[in-house]
Every structure is written in C-alpha cells, then in structure tokens.
Amino acid sequence: MTLTFHSNLLKDLSLILNDADDYDVIIEVGENQNIKEFRAHSVILRARSPYFKGALSANWITKKDDMIMFNKPNVTSTVFEMILKYFYTGEIDFTKQSDVDILGFLVATDELLLEELFEHVQDYLINEKTSWIDENLVLVLHAVFKLDNCKKLHDYCLDSICEDPLQFFTSDDFPSINKEIFLGLLKRDDLQIKEIAIWEYLIKWGIEQTPDLRNNKAEWNNESHEVLKKTLDQFIPLIRFVGISREEFFDKVRPYKAIIPNHIYEEIEEFYYKDNLPKTTILPPRTGFSNNSTGNFKSKIINKKLANIIVNWIDKKDAEYARTINDPSYKFKLIYLGSRVGINNELFKIKCNGRLASLVLVKGKKSNKIFGGYSSIGFNKLGDQCLIENNIRYYHSTDNFIFSFENSEDAQNMKIGRVINKQKAILEYFNNGFNFGWGSFCMYSHQNFQVNNRDFYEEISPYYIYDTISEIETFIIIKR
Description:
Strand content: 15-25%
Oligomer: single chain
Largest sheet: 9 strands, antiparallel
Radius of gyration: 29 Å
Shape: flat
Number of strands: 16
Low-confidence stretches: 289-296, 322-327
Helix content: 25-40%
Distance between the termini: 66 Å
Number of helices: 18
C-alpha cells in the first residue's frame, strides 16, 4: 500500500522558498532601476529546470563568499517570482498577473526549457486572452517570433492580422513591425485586403525605416530611391501585382518604378499591356484562404468553404457564386461559443444582444447536422420599433434566412430558407435564446433547439426537428 501526502509536501516546499536561511544561490533579475535579488537553492533549480542544471554546473558558476551569483537581466522580478513559485510548489496563478507579465512568463519558460509549462501558457493566452492579443499583435509577435516552440501563438497572431489587416496596418504600432515578421505576413495567401493597399502600406513602412526619406517625395533624388529600393528588395517580389488594376498601377505603383527590379517591372508591363499572364517572377493573386484547416475564420462547427457560402447568401447570390477573394466584404467576429462559457438561453441573451447583423450556428447532438440563421437585425434587445402580439415582440427584416448543412464540410446537400413573413422575422420570447419567426428555428429550454416551419421562413426540412445543442457559435457580421 502506497500513501501520498502531496498537500503537505507543497506546503513545506513553499516554506523553504519563503523562509529558509540555507539558500546557496542569489539570482539578480531585471535591469536599470528595476533590479531585484532572489534567494534560492541550487538543488531545487537544477532538479526543476534543464536550463539551470547546465547553468549552475561547476564550470559556469560565479561564487562570492561561497554563494552562487547568477544574473538574469532579461527577466522581470514579477515573472521570476512566478517561476520560483512554480519550481518550489508546482503552482501557477495568472488571475492576479497582468497580460504583459503572462507573455513575459511564456518567453521565460521557453528559455528555461520548461516545455510542459510553455505549452500550457501558450494555450492559456490563445484561449483566454484573445482580445488582449488582438489589441497588441505587434507586441506579442515581437516577443515570440524567434521562439521555435511558439508556432501556435505566432500563427494565431498572423491569422488575426490576415482576418482584419486594416486594423493592423492603420495602428500606431505598424511602422515598428520587425522586418522578418512583415516578410512572413506578405508571404501569406490569406491576407484579406486589396493588393494596392498592401503596396501603399509597404511603401509607408519602408519610408518609416529611413528617417531621411520622410520629407516631401518631390524632394527625393536618385539616392533616395536607391535607399528605399535596398530597404524593400526582399518585399517587392512578394507583391501580387496581378491583383492591382491598370489604373491603380499607373497612379500608385509607376511613380516608384525606380525601386522595382527591372525584370519584375518588365513582366508587370507585359501583363498590363499585352494581357499576358506572368511567367515565373510575379506571384499569383492571393486566394484569401490560409493553408491550415481553420485559417482566419475561427469556427468549431463549419469550415471556410461553408462560411463563404453563407456570405454569398447574405449577398443574395447563389451558393457557388465566385466571390472576389482579394476584396473581402465581411468580417466574422466570434462573440459567443457555447463550449467555452456554457450553453443556455440567458447566456445567449447576455452575449448576443443589440441591433447588429449576426450569424448563429448550431450543431445537433443526435443528428450531428448543422443548422443556422442569419439575422440582419440581431437577436435580442432590438428596441421599441416592433409588432407586439400577446406580449411577444416581433421585429421586421427583409434579409434574414435560416439554413442547414449535413455536416461541417458538405457543400452539396445544404438548404436555405429565406424569410417570408418579414414583419415577424425575429421574435423575442422570455424562454428563447433566439427565435426566427414563431419556431421556424429557435433555441429553447436552454440546451435544445427546434426547426419547425410555420410559413415564417421557406422550408429547410420537410418534418419537425427537435434536438440538443452540442455546440453553438454566434458571430457578428461586419460589412467592410
């Protein structure tokens, strides 16, 4: 029989960290006015970190009065305090830490070769700190782009930029973006912005890297163009010139002819004036889709092909209509994910309210089928302009529709039902999360939904459907 007493073990180790007087290592962290000393035990550090196992070996240590002295100027005191607590107790608590310190903690765990902890922190940031990451993309990218193990967070940042490039390119942080990060971004096929805009922001970035070029362009000389050409020599081949119109080329690209290599410029001219497709030098247009399975459209229920079909329906076009990927019209912003926060009517109403064009996706537990609905006016708290019957509020929309897919990838057996009774396109009812028409497609009894056509929407099922929700997502649909 084996007995374990982990709680007392952790308590005793915590006391060693905080109160012991037999430490043999002094670690100085931070720099300038933010230096702080920590006392620790070499045996604990060596046992808990492969980095310290090597760094504290006899061949590398520096001693003073029989005390091992160690410096880590690239780690803040807050971050190192978290690391020591992990070393001695195995505990990590992010609830009282700033997002910047959690990012710093991630970088430190990579340097200290704490692989298991590194993966946990990376997943925590992606799953719990998405809003902060999206608001600080340049900061996060600069922190992680050189970390080989941080591909997941690195790709998340690039996916977010590709999904909403204008927010990134127009931010105050854009001119400071690292060259290697910018190169990686321009290599992406799924950068959803007009190619001429990419060109203009590239020129802006190049000028910002060279203060002498910030004066009036009319004052530039041949040397000025040579400096800019040298700055952008690796970027120019990544521009998809075939996605730029003749007019845009004439007005916005041609004035910078001097910075474009001759062999590329000749191929551009041949394309524009002879309609000959580029041979080998110029890259093809961006597709608007990334190579990974989820790409910039982050859904657990459908893939991007089905999302593209829904966008075509929003535009009142056929499902197979070929949209112009270089000029994406919509952004999907996830505001409610059932598996993350819980599935019930009240949570849906809290997360999904206001007159905002919205898309709801539901996956059935029994059928495994996917049902959804688009409401150009949102779902809840829609205001006083409504039709009231028997204390039920009905709201008007000419653009709403409901739909179904057989599974997350099947684009052949889909059904769409557009609104028929436009005065009663959406109703608000106390025990419904959402309700298209009177039960045409609605969420009721917290985790259940039904499809029950009653002349409010065109039919998407010949029979009534009652099922339990296994996953639900709601997106705000933003017209660019």
